[in-house]
# Entry
Amino acid sequence: MKGLTTHVSKTLIPGSRLACADNSGASEFMIIHIVGKGGRKGRLSAAGIGDIVVASVKKGTPQYLKKPVKVVIIRQKAPIRRPNGMRVKFEDNAGVMIDDSHLPIGTEIKGAMAREVAEKFVKVAGIASRLV
# Structure
């Protein structure tokens, strides 16, 4: 998997809440663990746009409630810096549920999605309504 072409500020830590942007049945996540991020003793690892996290479903249908799921972050409130100097930020923190082979569980994404996510997750970008 290739890296992102932009500088993404990592601001989402374990315990952060995310809105669910797809129609999988969940409506709110809480981050439990950031996949692939090591850390240092006493320091929380952080995630940003395009990172995969393990999250617990806090609101949604009973089939997903209180169960850990993999989520890819598609929007964050903190600004990200693109190579042309433009900064992009969204009005909420949001994620999309994926399976172990990085395919989306839902069939459509509500709202906009960052273009940086489309570089890493092509199938997730295929069900998005808008790319920013």
User: Anything to note?
Assistant: The chain has a mean pLDDT of 90. The CA atoms of residues 77 and 91 lie 6 Å apart.
